[in-house]
Amino acid sequence: MEISNGPSLYPLHRCKTIHLVRHAQGVHNIEGDKNYKAYMKPEYFDAPLTQLGWQQVDSLRKHVHACGLHKRIELVITSPLSRTMQTAVGVFGGEGYTDRMDVLPLMVANVGNSDRAAISSLNCPPIMAVELCREHLGVHPCDQRRHIHDYHCMFPAIDFSEIESEEDVLWKADVRETKAEVAERGMKFMNWLWTRKETEIAVVTHSGFLLHTLSQFGNECHPLIKDDICKRFANCELRSMVIVDRNMTGSNASTTNYPGKIPSGPDVPSDVDEKGSEIS
Asked: For the region Disordered, what residue ranges are annotated (predicted)?
């Protein structure tokens, strides 16, 4: 496809800003990054964050607050695995939880043997778990999720209403998704985002899911832009992007556009006066 040589324009209300985040370091990443076969180990089932991973969460949280991003994000979407939900609540959750009967915490204390205090659900965007943005499914125990009722106990204020099955019916011990299937699922997720009313959304997900999904984008751009979109994410990396609705999939109306002429009525072209004479 021919690459445009200049900037392009698109209506703001046909766009969404998404802040993509890969989860912080999980216990499976320590050995798995050195030896891919280590991801097969059953002890890495639903791997939680390491202590270094929590330090990465704290660092990203400071950045999100320093740049004001925490005030703009309307919704946080997370994959329903421990390491992504820990990252989501650690980065975007409220400040120090106090035991109140009328407010559930986003995360109870010491989830995943983390020695972390409970995290508040006050003064932060809602956090929702969605199956479509899970990691490459199948074979690797670290990518298998727990029963939803177990997660309800660990992450009481996360919204699990989008998840239909109590058990993990997507992960198969002997069948792994192809890269094409991950990309297809990723595109379904991106299309689902357009059904949301929110225009600025954070997504906390996984390296493989991001790699294969984002590879579908940027083919019409300069190669350096394509690389900005598609290069592999580091643990706890955040990358902000804008997606546009080219096919009128979304139904959002503009909140900032203004119709102009008052009283209402047909305008004349700018180079024609009220009497119909051309202005020189």
From this structure: 253-280
